[in-house]
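User: Can you predict the 3D structure for this chain?
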Amino acid sequence: MGYAAIYIPEFPTLAWLRLDKGARTRAVAVIDGKPPLEKVVSFNRAAKEMGLSHGMSKVQADTSGRVIFHPRSLHEEKEALDLVFQAAEGFSPRVQIIASPLNEYAKTGCPAAALLVDQSGTETLFGDGRSYATKIREALQEIEFHSNVAVAPNAEASLLLARSYSGVTHVSERDVERKLAPLPVSALRTEMSTLATLKRWGIRNLGELAALPETALISRIGQQGKRLQRLAVGREDPP
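Assistant: Here is the predicted structure, written as structure tokens:
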């Protein structure tokens, strides 16, 4: 029993390129806002190699004249998300959308779609966790969405791993802490002020966070410190 997390980076760009195959070999970027204040919200690898970054103005991004720009379309993104959701439902009746156009991609700063799939009861159909993750990823590739898929013993661990590791990841309960340890604390879904506090303390990754004395951590940042420390070792809060 476990959870598969699906993470699809640069989702607005993929939603567009699914419909415009002619642009796939070019440097492309999705922009949002009114002229002349449009900002880059998503791009492909070719555009990244040319120096584009999230939040860059279109004027800054267009210095080479070689980037194709496309206005952001929530309709395209919602339609694309429906396709991804339907593909995920082929592997479990219990699928949850975590980050999408409707919730501004969970305000992660990166326009990636994320879904959570409950693996319970699927072993006889799809095999072990690695096989399950591989088959989900292959199904998404067939509908032209490149994704990271991670299977872990609980939901939050699988989401952390899918956001952080490319391709397919599968970890057992015994190995999840080791796999999470090198990830930056910024991978945790928590307030920016808390991340800033951890940075001031010199805490760079989840392994260092897990090693802090629990009592001292709680005394400084409250019960959320205990919660974050549990997440850092791959455990969720008890119900």
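The CA atoms of residues 3 and 118 lie 5 Å apart. The beta strands are 3-8, 27-32, 39-43, 67-71, 95-99, 113-118, 148-152, 168-170.
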